[in-house]
Specification:
This protein has about 400 residues and is α/β, with parallel strands linked by helices. Helix content is about 40%, strand content about 15%. The protein folds into 3 domains: about 5-180, Aconitase, domain 3, CATH 3.30.499.10; about 180-275, no CATH class; about 280-395, Aconitase, domain 3 (2-Layer Sandwich), CATH 3.30.499. It is globular.
């Protein structure tokens, strides 16, 4: 790789031990993937935050970086932690888990990282511009940034995103380059899609087929909004490894994407029905969770309207960012949900929380991403359905 004079100084250790370590990692990645240079990034988003995911080794690594004085050079946001940082006791998270999680958060804080603890940073203060190079690591956030916003990031690991945050640059390869942003599959959608869970089912189906390639969608409803597109991308990133998709009339680069010699995938009402059945092997959830990726204000308001006047008989969590939780409190949505017996839970989601240690065995979700991860990550049976179906299940 060709490095600038400043990058050479960082690599040589003239800017400190942690920047040198970080630059070595970035140079190694660049060598592996054939990058010729580094490019500046406008922001970073770091995964590997939950104590459940990184354990004692990850905690020790982060505390060592903080002790050595590591500081980020660009605005850097955090992925969800393993618990609600402010309300973990009320939600009955294990005390030892909480103690370790708080140590991890303190290490990030010392590095100057914004403790957003959300998988939807674009809804909570980190919205990149079209074409901006960034270094994000959460799979659904990467998909949304690349696809819906038109920013440019590879699917970074937690360490490489942190290295980019510390150095302010990332290797110029993969989705940072025009030639790697064209589709490989044409997905023809004829199914009637009316709910976020329908888009999650579509994404789960397509991710299984295309794996880590780029799909181009036709036939999606013209009124598909932010919530639907984040559900679509999140599910594809979980069931496959899709980091970029195009949707005709909905995403900004779809009009420029080359569409010759594409493999074809069809998704109709039959595929939609069959996918729901595959995603929902269990019934009677112990816990119902909405907000994977983290819920928007529109989704929180929808839940509040559905539970208003009800008495829930099973726990219902609406997972979201701290920013959205505070706004929901001010709007009165939190009070409505809490009166019904539910909770707005910030900073975490069920996938990275120790819910299996908290007595839950079956979880109801409307997220294709959660349905992909819960059986393996949390040893959960899954009930998959629309928000309306989940609220009804929590009321029984």
């Amino acid at each position: 790789m060709h490095l600038t004079n400043e990058e050479e100084k960082v690599l040589a250790g003239e800017r400190g031990e942690v920047p040198a370590r970080s630059m070595r990692l970035l140079v190694k990645l660049g060598d592996i993937y054939g990058a010729e240079r580094m490019i500046p990034v406008g922001s970073a988003q770091v995964a590997g935050v939950s104590y459940k995911s990184i354990g004692d080794p990850g905690r020790d690594f982060l505390e060592d970086y903080a002790r050595l004085g590591a500081k980020v050079r660009v605005p850097t946001f955090l992925n969800p932690a393993g618990m609600d940082i402010e309300d973990w006791e009320g939600l009955r998270f294990p005390k030892r888990f909480a103690e370790q999680q708080l140590r991890i958060m303190e290490a990030f804080r010392k590095m100057g990282i914004i403790m957003s603890a959300s998988c939807t940073p674009y809804l909570a203060g980190n919205l990149p511009r079209f074409g901006e190079h960034i270094a994000w690591s959460e799979s659904s956030a990467v998909s949304f940034a690349n696809s819906v916003i038109g920013a440019r990031t590879n699917r970074e690991g937690g360490p490489s995103a942190l290295a980019a945050a510390i150095c302010g640059v990332t290797p110029d390869y993969g989705y940072h380059r025009d030639e790697n942003r064209h589709p490989h599959f044409q997905v023809n959608v004829s199914a009637g899609l009316g709910f976020s869970s329908d888009y999650g089912a579509l994404g789960w189906f397509v991710g299984k087929v295309v794996k880590d390639k780029i799909p181009h969608f036709t036939g999606l409803p013209e009124d598909a909004g932010t919530d639907e597109l984040k559900a679509l991308g999140a599910a594809m990133a979980a069931s496959g490894a899709v980091a970029l998709y195009h949707a005709e009339g909905l995403t900004p680069e779809a009009r420029w994407a080359r569409k010759e010699d594409l493999q074809t995938v069809d998704f109709g009402d039959r595929e939609l029905e069959e996918t729901y059945a595959k995603l929902s092997p269990a019934k009677d959830p112990d816990l119902v969770v909405i907000g994977c990726p983290h819920a928007s204000m529109k989704e929180i308001a929808r839940v509040a309207a559905l539970v208003d006047g009800k008495h829930l008989k099973r726990p219902l969590w609406v997972c979201t960012s701290r920013v959205m939780k505070e706004a929901a409190r001010r709007m009165g949505f939190a009070a409505i949900i809490e009166k019904a017996g539910g909770r707005i839970v910030a900073d975490t989601c069920m996938v990275v929380a120790p819910i299996e240690e908290m007595g839950f065995k079956t979880t109801g979700v409307n997220s294709g991403k959660a349905a992909s991860y819960l059986p393996g990550h949390c040893k959960q049976g899954v009930m998959y359905g629309r928000i309306e179906d989940l609220v009804e299940a929590a009321s029984k």
